[in-house]
Write a structure and sequence with these properties.
The chain is mainly alpha-helical. It is 53% helix and 0% strand. Helix 3 runs antiparallel to helix 8. The longest helix has 26 residues. The protein is elongated, with a radius of gyration of 38 Å. The protein starts with a helix and ends in a 12-residue tail after the last helix. The mean pLDDT is 75. GO terms for molecular function: transcription coregulator activity. It is found in: Nucleus. This is Mediator of RNA polymerase II transcription subunit 31. Component of the Mediator complex.
Length: 193
């Protein structure tokens, strides 16, 4: 037991925190949890779920969404696999969008628009990335030749001959057809008694 003098000395000294919280993994788990949550925002169905369960009515949750905007900075954006989540995070800052996502029709509209964006993304990018070829210079047309001096036309052929690749494919198809139609039976038969 402590003497009364020691108790007085202890009460006079300012209280220092006994232990400060030290994150054991230096924030790695928090980083991963926030990354996972923000990437879930790329899914309109998940946003609809949040709206249906009234998460968007909680002021703390709205503040958390504002806090997550740091993911748009270059040092963090490189970890994001689904960039649509940043677009939806920006839209979620608007109260009208948050309330609209509670309706299933708006969820379907957002999902459909996202699908069409992905469907046409490559073609739209190629339109802007690939250089357009220069127009071919138009050569002057030769003067018309009288019809009496034209050479006779070559004889018409019945059909163009297939390329070797087409010929090999035709052989392979025809061989399997002929094998069954010629009466070749590859099944094992039981020998008679």
């Amino acid at each position: 037991m402590a003497s009364p003098e020691e108790m007085v000395d202890a009460s006079e000294t300012p209280s220092t925190p006994k232990s400060t919280y030290k994150d054991p993994d230096d924030g790695r788990q928090r980083f991963l949890l926030e990354l996972e949550f923000i990437q879930c925002l790329a899914n309109p169905t998940y946003i609809h779920y949040l709206a249906q369960n009234r998460y968007f009515e909680d002021e703390a949750f709205i503040e958390y969404l504002k806090y997550l905007q740091y993911w748009q900075r270059p040092e963090y954006i490189k970890f994001i696999m689904y960039p649509h989540c940043l677009y939806f995070l920006e839209l979620l800052q608007n109260p009208n969008f948050r309330s609209a996502m509670a309706h299933p029709a708006n969820k379907e509209l957002a999902h459909r628009q996202q699908f069409y964006y992905w469907k046409n993304y490559r073609n739209n990018r190629l339109k802007h990335i690939l250089p357009r070829p220069l127009p071919e210079p138009v050569a002057p047309q030769p003067p018309p030749v009288p019809s009496s001096s034209l050479p006779p036309a070559p004889p018409a052929t019945a059909a163009p001959s297939p390329s070797p690749m087409q010929y090999n494919n035709m052989l392979a198809k025809n061989e399997t057809r002929n094998m069954f139609s010629a009466g070749i039976d590859r099944r094992k038969r039981k020998k008679g008694p």
